[in-house]
Amino acid sequence: MLRPMSETTTRKGGCLCGAVRYEAAVRSEVSACHCSMCRRWCGGPLFAVPAETVRFVDGAAGAGGGDPVHPASLRTIVSSAWAERGFCAKCGSGIFYRVTAEGPHQGFTTLTLGSLDDQSGLTLTREWYADLEPEAYHLAGAQERLSSEQIAAMFGDLG
Question: At 120, is the secondary structure helix, strand, or coil?
């Protein structure tokens, strides 16, 4: 079962070129996902932090009073039947993963660890699809390692 929620802090972040910026309340835990979709999107595991709230704004390269919920350079792609991924249309930086399927997890959002301006004080606590981790790497540590089977039991079709 999932561990209790960790401490929440306010962090700022954005994409490589600065066109997408955000301020978010994030938990101090980091997860790594080894599923094939995340590996294709990131070139390796997706390292992400759960976000309680996110406020997107136009960044320096996209200034012009855009919508604070969806700045001009932020794009999304439907990556599965249950989720979407957000990225910068100018530089391609991955920004978030969000569950879109109806149900108790709808709206759950994680921000890519690399998009945070300050990555201090965060701890790797969980690996998703640990059984799919390629043999080319292995993450050290005592974090929770959930298998495909365990995730399917937890989320059903969302796993």
Answer: coil
